Amino acid sequence: MPAFRIVIMLKPGVLDAAGQAVQRGLHALGYGVDGVRVGKVIEFEADGVTRDAVGDMCARFLANPLIETWRIEETTPTGTAPAGTVPVGTGGAA
Amino acid sequence: MRWGVVIFPGSNCDQDCVHALRSVLAQDVLEVWHEDRSLDGIDAVALPGGFAYGDYLRAGAIAATAPVMSAVRDFAAAGKPVLGICNGFQILAEARLLPGTLVRNRSLRFRCKPVWVRVESAATPFTSAIPVGTVLRMPIAHAEGGYLASADDVAALEARGGVVFRYCDPMGRVTPEGNPNGSVAGIAGVANAAGNVVGLMPHPERASETLLGSTDGRRIFESAIAWGVSGR
Question: What is the model's pLDDT at position B12?
Answer without folding.
Answer: 97
